[in-house]
């Protein structure tokens, strides 16, 4: 199995688990994950957030750990052909990076070249900012994103908290509690085979 290179799109206050767990799982099987954020350079850090459901009408939000940016954003922009897939992590980051024309151009590249697109939680907000990416697709995301998915021409799938969904080469999930299933499906789409001896 050849190693793959994945571009992870993040912003300040992206969900901590959706950065760290995903990155470390992919690296554990030999893949490279470049974590980028607009206007950040390799070696910079971003703040992350932790979201949970604690009995209120919506999720709570707490400050997470710092996440290391390991690829300069401007360099990644020039090297999109080198990536095999793009991953849109969730949390608060997608709310603002989706309005960045450079982020939109990155997503458009993966859509037009038909490379795998992975999205979890609020990550779908990045995708719906680019016309056509979710149109005709069945997509899972946090329930609060359902109207946006529908307005963008997609079909919202109300997944269980531990379930992932695959539509072609797009893998989606509701949130960090689904990371095990989500990562497993991402690996399948990438053609990564894990064998137990």
Characterization of the model:
By secondary structure, this protein is of the alpha/beta class. The protein has one domain (5-190): Rossmann fold (3-Layer(aba) Sandwich). It is 30% helix and 26% strand. It is built from seven helices and eleven strands. The protein has helices at residues 16-28, 73-78, 93-97, 101-112, 124-128, 146-151, 179-190; strands at residues 5-9, 14-15, 32-36, 45-52, 60-68, 85-88, 117-120, 138-140, 155-157, 164-167, 170-173. The model has no long low-confidence stretch (mean pLDDT 97).
Low-confidence runs of at least 5 consecutive residues: none
The H/E string reads EEHEEEHEHHEHEHEEEH
Rg estimate, integer Å:
15 Å
Largest beta-sheet characterization? 6 strands, mixed
What proportion strand? 25-35%
General form: globular
Summed up, the helix count is: 7
Q: What is the domain tally?
A: 1
